[in-house]
């Protein structure tokens, strides 16, 4: 089962951006707040340190997406209702770890 008393984060993704006069490097952090009604909220932070935490205020309620729990899987729909909609299926390893082919989500309690 998944948990609702906190959020899940994926591993940070490094990025590099810039041109001849400006260069920026850091990490993108994605977090997912699953709600018990089958929707989830997403938050993204771009930071220099590799570790970051999220608060409830970071999750935007204006853009809910959907998910479904079936057996030992969580089926997450991204960009719900748009032409870019896609699905990722995560295995529930335990209540704090969800894993798909190339991503792992880790749970953090409030």
Describe the fold and architecture.
It is built from no helices and nine strands. It has an eight-stranded antiparallel beta barrel. By secondary structure, the protein is mainly β. It has strands spanning 6-10, 13-18, 23-34, 39-47, 65-70, 73-78, 86-94, 97-99, 104-109. Strand 7 and strand 8 (97-99) form a beta hairpin. It is 0% helix and 56% strand.
Q: Calculate the terminal CA-CA distance, rounded to whole Å.
A: 18 Å
What sequence of helices (H) and strands (E) makes up the elements?
Answer: EEEEEEEEE
Number of H- or I-type helical stretches:
0
How many strand units?
Answer: 9
Strand content: over 45%
In spatial order, strands of the major sheet run: 1-3-4-5-6-7-8-9
Alpha-beta classification: mainly beta
Low-confidence stretches: none
Radius of gyration over alpha carbons? 15 Å
> What's the overall geometry?
globular
What is the averaged pLDDT score? 90
Q: Helical content, roughly?
A: under 10%
How would you sum up the major sheet? 8 strands, antiparallel, barrel
In short:
The protein contains no helices and 9 strands. By secondary structure, the protein is mainly beta.
What does the secondary structure layout of this molecule look like, with pairings?
Blueprint: E1 6-10, E2 13-18, E3 23-34, E4 39-47, E5 65-70, E6 73-78, E7 86-94, E8 97-99, E9 104-109
Antiparallel strand pairs: 1-3, 1-9, 2-3, 3-4, 4-5, 5-6, 6-7, 7-8, 8-9
């Amino acid at each position: 089962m998944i948990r609702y008393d906190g959020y899940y984060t994926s591993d940070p993704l490094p990025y590099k951006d810039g041109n001849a006069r400006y260069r920026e490097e850091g990490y993108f952090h994605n977090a997912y707040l699953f709600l018990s009604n089958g929707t989830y909220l997403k938050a993204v932070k771009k930071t220099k340190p590799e570790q970051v935490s999220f608060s409830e205020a970071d999750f935007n309620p204006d853009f809910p997406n959907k998910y479904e729990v079936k057996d030992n899987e969580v089926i997450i729909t991204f960009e719900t209702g748009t032409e870019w909609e896609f699905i990722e299926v995560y295995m529930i390893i335990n209540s704090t770890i969800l894993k798909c082919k190339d991503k792992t989500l880790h749970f953090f309690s409030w």
